[in-house]
């Protein structure tokens, strides 16, 4: 008798099925084989080796390059989220074009030879602004997100009625490449534990995607999470990283799903950074070793992330455990492909493991994209934010006795300016206080244009000011990204509770909603005919100030990394596109990724910086040819 090992037996049994059944009738099918504990594709056993990639964190121009690199590593699938708030910015207004063209991404993946595991939410977490939920949901102050709250469900139903019919033609059964679809995301880690909500989603997904599509859930590696996040009819999968006992984790999946394939839906190949954290790194040997262990067990594995990319603009989320902790702009994630899409040693180690389990495509790995160190550019002051309101807020302020949130102002992201008058003479330093910790998330305070200091959520609830009765008090409030995980995702922004000056409540506000991105996208300040004869740095302004400059064209439009050494905190735009936040003082991220396709090789490139606290003395910025995401690593 031939002695055979257990995994081989499993495959043999699965293979028998092909011979026993009519293979022709099974082409174009993807299903779960509960007898033999595997997936079946076209009636044959199928194991996926997948990587997460977020089209919304990578410029469209680079999608094909990144997918090809994943294919050449030996992956046979990619796992993608769909962020609702990226596609429905205002209720009923949808955008699926340009960098938001989901179907183009699916098409490229299909052309590349990659299957897709789709995770359309509606909640996605993903360290993305509000976990992918649109902030306009918060216009209802009592909304219970991720539950059967009728207002929430109505918005979900309208969205999924747009999204799911779009993806239906991409299902494997319809000739596309989507093998399976996840319902919600780690729902068991949310406090509501509302099975009726999961049931509602289950029904909706069935209506739009049919009875035969494999639908699944993903939850963290605890009994509580698996219990609250799973539902009969949705295949239960688990997620865990390198610090976990693999067999114990899959034993847990087995308790909820006694038969069927083993699936780790998020095997953490790296990890994220928050501002002020140490730069996270996950050891390559551990990743490779655990990947091998899981694949040897016949498990299906998705590596989260395979390429992380960038939280451009205002799209970073935040965590809130003991305090509010916003995620940095880079979503490099210490992933096998870097933020800029370059293959790393981790990728090569993973490829070496995959080779032992399936044939890896022949041929060269596409090389890293070209990088260029364009050098220094000196910026000039445009002016203080508070003196540019005619341009930044052309509609003017609304007048209100009380404070209003960003959501009430229907300005969901970025910055808001709250203005009032000092109610009395302040002889001595007098504290401006947010007694209920209502500054969400950071406030820059000036009196008659003179900067006084800042307030910060959870850490700095008072700042001293001085001035005369009737002086103008300006408070610029920054939204640093809504909480994306846990019970605090109803994260209203702005001044969300009363401010006191000494013992007086401040009232009678002028609230300016700032159209900064719209104004910069339309060419300001470079089109503005401003008098910029001021010498750089000649007059040290503190507080929110705009700066501008140009990077002269060099015939190249290669990727580069922007370093704002000596600057404090703010936002950068290049040619009208919002690159994201910089905060080198807090770290660990020191450089912003500037994708080459944003640059012009023939025209001067427009740089705009909003510095919130204090610019570097020489007002210079530096374009380098490499990323620096770890302030502790030193460097120039
Ligand atoms: C839709 O999104 C794309 C990509 O970000 C953008 O270029 C385009 O202007 C948006 N369309 C509308 C109508 O907002
Ligand atoms: C996906 O790619 C396959 C193989 O190239 C092709 O036959 C199929 O038509 C493609 N599907 C779609 C929806 O484009
Ligand atoms: C991992 O968990 C299994 C039980 O599932 C246990 O038998 C084994 O000892 C654990 N391994 C380690 C290294 O703790
Ligand atoms: C405000 O000034 C007073 C008096 O100088 C000082 O005791 C207090 O610490 C200051 N408070 C803050 C928040 O700076
Ligand atoms: C820079 O701004 C000017 C003025 O708005 C505009 O004409 C020019 O096209 C911009 N340059 C690039 C490369 O977008």
Description:
Helix content is 20%, strand content 27%. The model is unreliable at 1-22 (pLDDT under 50). It has 636 residues and is an alpha+beta fold. The chain starts with 5 loop residues before the first helix and ends in a 12-residue tail after the last strand. It has three domains: 6-314 and 323-354, TIM Barrel; 375-383 and 517-624, Sandwich (Jelly Rolls), CATH 2.60.120.260; 395-514, Jelly Rolls, CATH 2.60.120.260. The longest helix is centred in the N-terminal third of the chain and has 18 residues, at 150-167. The protein is globular, with a radius of gyration of 26 Å. A hairpin with a 2-residue loop joins β2 (38-41) and β3. α9 (284-296) runs parallel beside α10 (345-355). The protein has 13 helices and 34 strands. An eight-stranded parallel barrel has the order 4-5-6-7-8-9-10-11, surrounded by five helices. Strands 16-27-17-23-20-21 form a six-stranded antiparallel sheet, with no helix packed on it. Strands 15-28-33-30-31 form a five-stranded antiparallel sheet. It binds 2-acetamido-2-deoxy-beta-D-glucopyranose (5 copies). InterPro entries: B-gal_1-like (IPR026283), BetaGal1-like_ABD1 (IPR048912), BetaGal_gal-bd (IPR048913), Galactose-bd-like_sf (IPR008979), GH (IPR017853), Gly_Hdrlase_35_cat (IPR031330), Glycoside_Hdrlase_35 (IPR001944). Residues 544-600 form the Beta-galactosidase galactose-binding domain. One of its GO terms (biological process) is carbohydrate metabolic process.
